[in-house]
């Protein structure tokens, strides 16, 4: 059968299949591109992405490395720049206009270098490819698996995906292009096999949209594309809570609603003396209220309301008429049929706390503590309370002694904490015999027996106290030799610990004062204010002198 071609069949016989007319439904890429960049499948994927955008706008595509990294998060900016350099060096991408300051570089795909030069893509001359051998790539591999990108001159591109995360990468797209072109390579195809795009290095057709959606998590855009969700706003989910919603009304209307609801409940549950329910009687006594609704004084009674006056009916108007004619009719009606309800005014009970009159309460009230806290600690041990108060008064940095005492008492009750003042008084004797023995030991005399002890004690009390004996020679390493005037003791030095007398504190060296700031003494050892000072006091230079210093403090304090 003769050929119907105008050339008699010669032109048809001369053009092979790979020189067929380009179809705009596919992405056409040169075979030589796949052969020269077979070692760089990422460059092939970027070339296909630029061709896809060029077929949409038919203009240069402004694209940056950051845009491609946003489109394919698995890539790094260094790999993307390397792929761009490979495409530009092989003349597979052209930059028609020089980049302006602050704008992205715009690229145009080319068919490669030919005898007349680099031939860029042009839609006016059937893509202007000449005699270049090409292969076609289904564009849905980019739109469906990776998403659609709309680059911009400034700012980030607009990306829409059918899947929440890309199912392929641009490198996988480049490997698929090598399989389509039949170019041998050594790249991994495990991802393509898992997605159903190849089998034993043989490229397969792109699956349908539903099959691709089943391979990942569908996004909102994908659900709307498949018409599973409306294009507009999504329907609000139903509230699983069956309770009615809260709503707010005006104060006057709220009073009417509460009164009506309470009356309905009382009338439904109560039975009259004659054995009939309240709803069966002809006239029902309802308290009338004077409300200024429409500018006139109106009376809203039971007669104007429907038989079933519920919350829903009141919210929708409840059948209550507020017209002027109703107001005039209500004003003309006699009021003898309306019974006034018998109300009894019950004063609100006052919460009066009966606080016991105890020494603890008196001491707490003297500190200006609030009545609620006074009642809380009214039954606490008196000795513990006095110890806590004494501890609070000995501290110089406390502004609110009452607050401090309440805080310490709560720590004692909740955690069993021991106040600091109690620690200072551990070694102090509490009975008379121990005090007498300590006194005679200090004086250097024997304790008399039987009744002579009481006579001797009375004599000691009446007599003058013995002179204070302090071994100043032993304390010489701690004392300042320039301070010898004892008249300075009348002055109160700042930052002095309470267990050190003022006359001794003034004679100490400045370095020793610094170590003893905020210190405490329990009669046998000194506890410094922090760990560093405690370590300094543990040095041999101070450890040998501190016992004599403690004895001198006790002697001068007595």
Automatic annotation (TrEMBL):
It comes from the Bacteria. This is DnaA N-terminal domain-containing protein. Residues 326-338 have a biased composition (Basic and acidic residues). Residues 298-338 are annotated as: Disordered. Residues 306-315 have a biased composition (Polar residues).
